[in-house]
Write a structure and sequence with these properties.
InterPro entries: Disease_R_plants, P-loop_NTPase
Strand order of the largest sheet: 1-2
GO biological process, one term: defense response
Organism: Punica granatum (Pomegranate)
Oligomer: single chain
Protein name: NB-ARC domain-containing protein
Amino acid sequence: GGVRNGILRIKELTFEQSALIVLDDVHDVGQLNALAGGRDWFYEGSRIIITSRDRDLLPESIVNVFYE
């Protein structure tokens, strides 16, 4: 489906080059896991910016720095 194809495309594009990815208004951990997966998906130097109204949604194991 569309989501699976999108996930595969993100992996393809970020595996061998650094990228800046913005995930805006994330509502649940499932979205975060589907779109950002694990750190091993991304080439060294990549940055992911995640916005959410629910700070508890973003575990410290995934997020390095919080801004409010």
